[in-house]
Design a protein that fits this description.
about 30% strand, Rossmann fold, alpha/beta, six-stranded mixed sheet, four-stranded antiparallel sheet
Length: about 260
């Protein structure tokens, strides 16, 4: 089997929260990961292991400081790049808890984001036509794009909206931070179907899935599964790791640290 070209790499990343009370303890303590073009990597780990810190750090959240290591996207060291430059370069983060933005409709948000990402200045009508197919695929009503971003959305609507954003913005690398959190099985399958269809349209896109549960992995079929313990990747493999986790819990992986 041919190894795909490298798309994204994290080298020995150390990260701590930014505080006003001196140096805080590191949350990420030497995490390394390489994602090839077109690959899906799943990261699983217990609460407090640093999964969401990793997602926030990858999008340059000011709440965290990189103290060592580097982040590389398509050969460029982006460790010091701000959020907007990373997004323009093709990084996308689907949030675990998408924020509400009152007064800004979904269609307005998408138009501004697409202009920043690709320099495309589509009219609202052109963008509405472009979103219609994805709204159908994701089980959204046609009026959805006129609602204020995430305001009054159900959990499933928020997550489907994130997947629609990913489809429209066409990132090089998508980081999905617990996209399955709070979804019932029907909504999960719709979201997973959307991920699969985006990958069909963009076979070179890389995906990093951060999740607690095997059920999303059963729907998406990742190329690699990583178990994260105490701010590091403790073990990497295939779906057999997720199955072992279901049987044995995290203790068997902690013992390998």
């Amino acid at each position: 089997m041919t190894t795909p070209p490298e798309l994204f790499r994290i080298d020995d990343l150390h990260v701590r929260p930014v505080t006003d009370e001196g140096d805080a303890p590191e949350i990420l303590r030497g995490l390394s990961l390489t994602v090839g073009a077109g690959e899906v990597h799943a990261i699983m780990g217990p609460n407090g292991c640093g999964k969401s810190t990793l997602a926030s750090t990858l999008l340059a959240s000011p709440e965290y400081e990189v103290t060592a290591g580097r982040i590389v996207l398509q050969g460029d060291d982006i460790t010091d790049w701000p959020t907007d430059v990373r997004a323009k370069a093709g990084m996308f983060l689907a949030f675990q808890y998408p924020q509400e933005i009152a007064g800004v409709s979904v269609i307005q948000f998408l138009r501004q984001a697409l202009s920043a990402r690709k320099g495309l200045d589509l009219s609202v009508l052109e963008l509405r036509l472009a979103t219609m197919d994805w709204m159908k695929r994701l089980g959204m009503d046609g009026s959805f794009v006129d609602r204020y971003l995430n305001e009054g959305f159900s959990g499933g609507e928020k997550k489907r909206n994130e997947i629609m954003q990913m489809a429209i913005l066409e990132p090089e690398l998508a980081i999905l931070d617990e996209t399955d959190s709070g979804l019932d099985i029907d909504a999960l399958r719709i979201v997973a179907k959307g991920i699969r269809e985006i990958r069909t349209d963009r076979p070179q896109m890389g995906v990093v899935l951060i999740t607690h549960y095997q059920r999303l992995l059963d729907e998406v079929s990742p190329d690699k599964v990583h178990i994260m313990i105490d701010g590091r990747i403790a073990c990497s493999g295939g779906m057999e790791l997720a199955e072992q986790l279901e049987r044995e819990g995290y203790d068997s992986f902690r013992a390998r640290q």
